[in-house]
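Posting this for the archive.
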Amino acid sequence: MNLNDLNKVLFDNLNRINNPDLSGEQLKDTIEQSKAVASVAGQIISLGELALRGQELACKQNKDYCPIMPALLQVTNETKVINQETN
């Protein structure tokens, strides 16, 4: 799983919460499940930030050695990348 996948999971949860057909106990259960997913997502995001900081440090220490982007942060074919380099 990467951050792209996590994004999809979070939006799927948001869509379930916004389902007008849910009410009462079903809605309550869906909200509780979404809270749990959001909590885990926060930890995954924190882990991604740590992995990125580690990679940045490794690149600063040795410009000739920059490790491959951690799998959690890798861009997939479904992700659009905007080149922000200034030439």
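Residues 24-61 form the longest helix (38 residues). The chain has a mean pLDDT of 80.
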